[in-house]
């Protein structure tokens, strides 16, 4: 059987169901397949692929969040190191006076 693309309505329905529950019980999978005019296997594969895409997006979001925290801490660390350096210079100058 030739593989055909899902319609916009089918994808919309699958997305809505995914938002409610990202894993399907066998009975729900059959029901959804029947409602959408698809084979249960097509629904199962769509959910499997969608979970994989969700996981990848989640990893990207986590990475961006961690990178932002790291960049902020790096900047804070540089400021503190500059303060320590200036305090050290002041201490040396005071001793010389």
UniProtKB/TrEMBL annotation:
Gene3D superfamilies, per the entry: Homeodomain-like
Main location: nucleus
SUPFAM superfamilies, A to Z: Homeodomain-like (SSF46689)
GO MF terms, alphabetically ordered: DNA-binding transcription factor activity, RNA polymerase II-specific; sequence-specific DNA binding
Matches recorded under InterPro entries: HD, HDZip_class_I_plant, Homeobox_CS, Homeodomain-like_sf, HTH_motif, Leu_zip_homeo
Residues of the DNA-binding region: 3-58
Annotated ranges, domain Homeobox: 1-57
Subcellular location: Nucleus
Chain segments annotated as coiled-coil in the UniProt record: 49-83
Domain of life: Eukaryota
Keyword set includes DNA-binding: yes
Keywords carried by this UniProt record: Coiled coil, DNA-binding, Homeobox, Nucleus, Transcription, Transcription regulation
BP GO annotations: positive regulation of DNA-templated transcription
One CC-aspect GO term: nucleus
Family matches, as CDD domains: homeodomain (cd00086)
Family recorded in the similarity comment: Belongs to the HD-ZIP homeobox family. Class I subfamily.
PANTHER family: HOMEOBOX-LEUCINE ZIPPER PROTEIN, HOMEOBOX-LEUCINE ZIPPER PROTEIN ATHB-54
Annotated function: Probable transcription factor.
Protein name: Homeobox domain-containing protein
Higher taxonomy: Eukaryota, Viridiplantae, Streptophyta, Embryophyta, Tracheophyta
